[in-house]
Design goal:
Function: Catalyzes the first step in the biosynthesis of NAD from nicotinic acid, the ATP-dependent synthesis of beta-nicotinate D-ribonucleotide from nicotinate and 5-phospho-D-ribose 1-phosphate.
Bound molecules: adenosine-5'-triphosphate, 1-O-pyrophosphono-5-O-phosphono-alpha-D-ribofuranose, nicotinic acid
Domain Nicotinate phosphoribosyltransferase N-terminal: 9-130
Oligomer: single chain
Shape: globular
Low-confidence stretches: none
Number of helices: 16
Domain Nicotinate/nicotinamide phosphoribosyltransferase: 151-316
Strand content: 15-25%
CATH architecture of the largest domain: Alpha-Beta Barrel
Domain Nicotinate phosphoribosyltransferase C-terminal: 352-456
EC number: 6.3.4.21
Structural class: alpha/beta
CATH superfamily of the largest domain: nicotinate phosphoribosyltransferase
Length: 470
């Protein structure tokens, strides 16, 4: 599933690329910034995800013969198609590390390449990073409330088609433990697990028989679904019988699963029945339209649930349809570039840049990132990007550069990490962030500022653009 064709793009990228090609501009240098404007879920942070996946994909991105035939039919010209036959992305990429906590309006990633190459990769870059960052952020919110409980992704069946594949990857980056998605488990090396469906129990005349056969077929990690007929009168008592039979064979029932009704009530009552039967090791799993709010509430009600299976609300990023990440030109043909907008929030930042995270003497993030020109090593004062009279002195802080070179000449420079390693890194970065930025209601707003030099460069370009209009 990682075999993407370079036609995984919007047609306008190729239309622009053909013009660059024909007008002799294809090799002009360009820098594009990837950033988003709004944190999903009205939260205080986002978890950057999809990077290592993206780098692997773009290092192998090619147009094959059938792509070229199709593009010919679409009216693209022969000499341009000849160029596309040998297309490779040979650019450089600077980026935040996958799993880092990231904030709006400042570059998360920067592409520095020939303009034609940078343009052709835009759509796939936005597609993979926007979606995985959205889902990793959702997963991270669920992890924040779930504490040490086991979190399983059950979402493939409800996902936006193949989005479920990448959602399973992003869920792990954000802190989930495993997935029911077999192909994602295989390709991304994610622990795969699962329970059983109602249909299996319905297909038997007798629930107990169904449990027995299932436990025989899958003694390791066996989880019995107890709510098909009557949770407390039938499901749990039958699960207890099978657990005892398993004990006599030297096996252990892993858990029961609740999938309807008042999950707190049923978890408490089931726990009592299991404990009374001497089965305190049998865990309780719950599913049914869970999200961070329901899980938080269940844990506040002290529901003894050990495993949460989360589907729809995780993999669809509910209630936010998309991360609004954009890819904006900052420099090309040796000149800084700017996009003017009616809304000051949408005016872009010119030039190659670096982002610095401000930290105190204990390595704790103080809640501010400053954007400077790439050659600036330390920023003494940062200015509010849209309210020029607001500024903050940064001299006393440690300043960590966030954008690191991750690709050179189209080849990945960083060592590939396992998703578990990325997820651990993400947790460690989150732990540097003060709690005020992690609360769900009205989180503290993380400060983003620009250096004086960057501010002045932007002003200069705005003035000259206005001048041209006169
Ligand atoms: N104790 C609880 N506290 C908070 N939310 C809960 C609790 N128990 C269940 N929920 C959530 O409430 C919602 C209940 O959904 P719904 O009304 O469809 O019930 P249901 O049990 O699924 O009904 P059905 O019989 O149709 O399966 C789900 O999102 C579930 O996760
Ligand atoms: O509610 P979600 O968060 O999306 O979690 C996934 C749901 O998918 C399954 O139900 P489904 O009715 O599809 O199959 P089932 O017959 O196995 O219950 C499972 O039982 C969960 O309820
Ligand atoms: O394994 C499960 O219990 C499962 C898998 C997918 C969706 N719902 C439940």
């Amino acid at each position: 599933m990682n075999n993407f064709s370079a036609t995984y793009t919007d047609q306008y990228q190729l239309s622009m690329a053909q013009v660059y090609f024909k007008k002799g501009q294809k090799d002009h240098n360009a820098i594009f910034d990837y950033y988003f404007r709004k944190i999903p879920y009205d939260g205080g942070y986002a978890i950057f995800s999809g990077l290592e996946n993206l780098l692997e994909i773009i290092s192998e991105l090619r147009f094959n013969e059938s792509d070229l035939e199709f593009l010919k039919k679409q009216g693209f010209e022969d000499d341009f198609l000849k160029y596309l036959r040998d297309f490779r992305f040979r650019g450089r990429i600077y980026s935040a590390s996958e799993g880092d906590v990231v904030f709006p309006t400042r570059p998360v990633l920067q592409v520095e390449a020939k303009i034609i190459e940078a343009q052709i990769i835009e759509t796939i870059l936005l597609n993979l990073l926007n979606f995985q960052t959205l889902i990793a952020t959702k997963a991270s919110r669920i992890r924040l409330v779930a504490g040490d409980s086991t979190l399983l992704d059950f979402g493939l069946r409800r996902a936006q088609a193949t989005g479920g594949y990448y959602a399973s990857r992003a869920a792990i980056v954000g802190g989930f433990d495993g997935t029911s998605n077999v192909v994602a488990g295989k390709n991304f090396d994610i622990p795969v697990s699962g329970t059983m469906a109602h249909s299996f129990i319905q297909s038997y005349d007798d629930e107990l028989e169904a449990f027995r056969d299932f436990a025989e077929g899958r003694p390791d990690g066996c989880v019995l679904l107890v709510d098909t007929y009557n949770t407390l009168k039938s499901g749990v008592p039958n699960a207890i019988k099978v657990a005892k039979e398993m004990e006599s064979r030297g096996e252990k029932l892993l858990a029961i699963r609740l999938d309807s009704g008042d999950l707190s009530y049923f978890a408490k009552e089931s726990r009592k029945l299991l404990d009374e039967a001497g089965l305190d090791y049998v865990k309780i799993a719950a599913s049914n339209q869970l999200d961070e709010h329901v899980i938080k509430s269940l844990l506040e009600q002290q529901a003894p649930i050990d495993i949460f299976g989360v589907g729809t609300n995780l993999v669809t990023g509910d209630p936010d349809g998309a991360l609004d990440g954009v890819y904006k030109l900052a420099f090309s043909s040796d000149k800084p570039r700017i996009k003017i907008s009616e809304s000051i929030f949408k005016v872009t930042l010119p030039h190659k840049k670096q982002v610095f995270r401000m930290k105190d003497d204990h390595g704790k993030c103080i809640g501010a990132d400053a954007i400077g020109l790439f050659e600036e090593n330390k920023i003494t004062e940062m200015f509010h990007p849209f309210e020029p009279y607001k500024s903050m002195n940064l001299e006393k802080f440690h300043q960590e550069p966030i954008l690191k070179k991750v690709m050179e000449n189209g080849e990945m420079l960083i060592d590939k990490r396992s998703l578990k390693e990325i997820s651990e890194y993400s947790l460690s970065r989150l732990s540097e962030l003060p709690i005020e930025y992690k609360r769900f209601n009205n989180p503290h707003i993380y400060k983003i500022g620009i250096s004086e030099r960057l501010r002045d460069e932007r002003e200069k370009l705005i003035r000259s653009s206005k001048q041209k209009l006169k």
